[in-house]
Amino acid sequence: MKPGARRDEVTPDLLLRAYSVGLFPMAESADDAELHWVDPPARGVFPLDGLRVSRRLARTLRSDRFGVRADRDFDAVIDACAEEGPGRGRTWINPEIKRLYRALHARGHAHCIAAFDGEGALAGGLYGVSLGAAFFGESMFHRATDASKVALVHLVARLRAGGFVLLDAQFVTPHLASLGAVEIPRADYLARLGAAIGRSADFAAFDRAGATDGAAALAAAV
Residue 127: which of 109, 135, 139 has the closest Cα? Predict the structure, then answer.
C-alpha cells in the first residue's frame, strides 16, 4: 500500500494515470477521508475465456429473472456497493471514492452493470473503470441471490464483444475464485496491463450486437 493522499491531491486524471501503472485507490473505511494507493504483489484477474458459470446460474440467466442494464443509475450502484451488510463488513468506499468515480463515469471511463428484479428494484450490480482494452472491476453487491453473478456474466459478455483483453479483479477471494478469478504476479499483471491499455475497445459493442438478454450474455461470456 502506497502513502495516502488528501482530497485536493487526487483528480480523475490522476486516477486514470494511476490505473495505467497498476495502482488503485482505497480508503481504510467509509469514514476515513484519506485515500491510499494500493499496489499488491499479486493481482487478481478474470481470464476472459475462463469464466465459470454453474448450471444454476445458467438457468437464472436464461430465465431473465433479472433485467440487466449497462450504465443505468451509476449513482445507485456505487451507493449500494458502499453499503454495509451481512458478510460485507466495513466498506472502503468513502465519499471521495464516490466523487471520483462519478466524475469518471461522466467522462465515459467508469461503467456499471445493474440487475433489476421483476418489480424494477435494484437487486445487484457492479462498477469499474475502463482504460484502453482493460477493465478494472472495483466492487459488486447483491440484494437477491445470484444478482451480482448475473451482472458479472453480462460484464464479461460485454468485454468480450467489445474487444477487451484484461479484466482486473484486484484481489482473489474464495467467491471470485469460484467464478474463475486467478492470481498472477505483479510483473505478469503489469505486462498484460501495458498491452491492454495500448489497444482500443468498445464497452457499448454488445448493445449494438442485437440481443442482450440473459441467454445472449451467457453465450457471449463462455
Answer: 139
